[in-house]
What we know:
Elements: H1 3-27, E1 29-42, E2 45-58, E3 62-66, H2 73-80, E4 88-93, E5 96-97, H3 103-113, E6 114-117, H4 129-139, H5 145-155, H6 171-182, E7 189-193, H7 201-218, E8 221-226, H8 229-234, E9 237-242, E10 245-249
Helix pairs in contact: 4-5, 4-6, 5-6, 6-7
Amino acid sequence: MTLDLIQIIFLFCLIAIKGKSNFRRIMTKILNVRKLGKSYTSGSKELPVLQEITFDIEKGSTFSIVGPSGSGKTTLLGLCAGLDRADTGSIELCGTDLGALSEDERALLRSREVGFVFQDFQLLPTLTALENVVVPLELQGAKNASKVGVELMEKVGLGSRLHHYPSQLSGGEQQRVAVARAFSNKPTILFADEPTGNLDAKTGDKIIKLLFDLNVDTGTTLVIVTHDMELAEMTQHQMRLKGGKIVQDQNPSIS
């Protein structure tokens, strides 16, 4: 075999390896946001909330969105989760273009792929802790909903509080129920909006540990909106918003 032929074969191998690497990199993007814009109307004025937002999130990673109040963090989270529609730009979640989906189709995608933890817990007051966790499973027709619900409650340390109502639980316990509910559908990605905002520091630390432990155990991508820079620095990537624009991005995957 001549030297030229060996060099050609070597070159083709390098191209093949690079191609596979790029393909793998593309396939591991769980969220792709491009030139996103959102405005709201107040009287006769249009108020821009988000402008030209572009970023990617890798599957299985942890990602935080930080910024002052009014910077558009929660609006961005809701758009990425398919809870609202953007005015401009595109969002691809779990390989699906959200802009091409109807309201019902977005709801179906969320039920299959997305978990959400709210700052104010959003538990149903007339249901027990266990029932709050089980309801999403039952709506999906899961046959072992109760068993899975109990397992999740035990995982978040509330195995002895299954039949307590939200009003009988502390703030930290309610948030743990909310976390268990968010993981009930085994989400590919979980969005957490100020998950420790209404909790004291000690309880907040427990919720943070729980979220990161579940991220490691299940491989669920974790996206957190927070004012807490210590929490943000625990994530692999951080993005800062100000005035509806990205002003700092520490995500090396952005293109």
